[in-house]
Design a protein that fits this description.
Elements lengths: L5 E5 L7 H7 L17 H9 L7 E7 L5 E11 L4 E8 L9 H16 L4 E7 L3 H10 L2 E12 L2 E11 H8 L2 H22 L1
Parallel strand pairs: 4-5
Antiparallel strand pairs: 1-2, 2-3, 3-4, 5-7, 6-7
Helix pairs in contact: 3-4
């Protein structure tokens, strides 16, 4: 999946490096992530990877389109094939790529994969209401704030409300384009990508 700033490729076990472990244990990055709060070692990271496989999940490495550098991760999970619903998560862990639109581009490509490749109809997530960067990125993409869960997360010594966010396939197509429009964009993006690779040889 080629975006403007990133491309998504399948996450591999070999992506679980020391840098990856630094990301998932970064206190700033994880301050409001909806997780257990326990430290992640190599074995726990491998177990997470192994539990993020089809048919219940799809796990991607987020890479800089210019350099191929692995900068973050994105995942669709809890895929309900009957009701065509899934939840998502994504992080940009590499310090050089934070707050520069890479996470937003990754989310668009993740949603596109879910809607156009998997046939999902509704993709949702949630964010702690104080996580302004995550909420802002979701707003840019067009996720709808559907509700609020009171005191749903315990972090930094207190309970926090979370905001439920979701997008439907029809809303994605209206905002970002349907499969035919993306096909034309993809052809141009692949051409530019091949030219960049050729220029580096």
């Amino acid at each position: 999946m080629l975006g403007e700033k990133v491309f998504l490729r399948p996450f591999e076990r070999t992506d679980i490096t020391d840098d990856y472990l630094d990301w998932v244990n970064d206190p700033e990055l994880n301050a409001y992530i909806l997780a257990t709060g326990f430290p992640v070692n190599y074995d726990r990271a491998v177990a997470y990877y192994e539990n993020s496989q089809a048919p219940s999940a799809v796990y991607f490495a987020v890479c800089d389109i210019e350099t191929g550098t692995h900068i973050g991760n994105a995942r669709l999970s809890l895929i309900d094939w009957i009701n065509r619903v899934a939840t998502y998560g994504r992080i940009v862990g590499h310090q050089d790529y934070k707050r520069k639109g890479y996470g937003t581009d990754a989310l668009i490509q993740l949603l596109r994969f879910g809607f156009h490749q998997l046939g999902i109809n509704r993709i949702w997530s949630s964010a702690v209401e104080e996580n302004f960067r995550s909420l802002g990125s979701n707003d840019k993409v067009g996720m709808v704030r559907e509700g609020q869960l009171r005191e749903y997360v315990y972090a930094n010594g207190k309970f926090h409300d979370t905001i439920v966010l979701a997008m439907l396939r029809k809303d994605f197509d209206r905002i970002h384009g349907g499969p035919d429009e993306w096909a034309a964009r993809d052809a141009e993006a692949r051409k530019k990508f091949r030219n960049k690779l050729a220029a580096k040889k």
